[in-house]
Design a protein that fits this description.
about 160 residues; mainly beta; four-stranded mixed sheet; about 0% helix
């Protein structure tokens, strides 16, 4: 959407439900040997959030200079196919700021300079992980492992087009 001559707004959203009709989990049983089977119905597919949304405001005060404020929301998602609340990733919302400037020269068709500040508000979140479970000592043990994402981080880049 062109809000003003120098301001545009790009957005997208995805709503989905990705289900497994019948799923069987096999859990290692260290007490008795072998595995125990647990049946589930209508579970969410692992790493399949129901909502993903993106949003970008781009301000171009002068030709070839752009400031972009970029937002991304990812809904909660599960680490496995069981839809168990103790095995999920929380929803997260992150924002980035990007500045792009490009210019032409006699010898190079275009030179682009990019500076970005990612995770601008230092959101603490995990975007991936894995889970492992077993039976030991008469108890069901579930271990979750997460991949935390970087806090505020910076990026600079040059692009040359010949």
């Amino acid at each position: 959407i062109r809000v003003l001559k120098s301001l545009s707004w790009d957005m997208n959203v995805t709503f989905s439900q990705n289900k497994i009709q019948n799923f069987e989990e096999f859990v290692d049983d260290y007490d008795n040997g072998g595995q125990q089977k647990i049946a589930y119905s209508k579970t969410d597919i692992a790493f399949s959030p129901n909502v993903i949304a993106g949003n970008t405001f781009t301000f171009e005060p002068v030709k070839n200079l752009k400031f972009s404020f970029i937002s991304k929301y990812v809904g909660e998602q599960y680490l496995d196919n069981t839809s168990t609340n103790t095995r999920k990733l929380d929803a997260f919302f992150v924002n980035d700021l990007r500045i792009n400037y490009s210019f032409k020269t006699k010898f190079i068709r275009s030179i682009g300079i990019t500076v970005a500040v990612n995770n601008l508000f230092n959101e603490q979140y995990e975007s991936n992980g894995y889970t492992w479970g077993y039976i030991y000592g008469g108890q069901r043990i579930v271990e979750n492992f997460y991949y935390p994402q970087a806090g505020v981080n910076y990026l600079a880049g040059l692009t040359f087009k010949f």
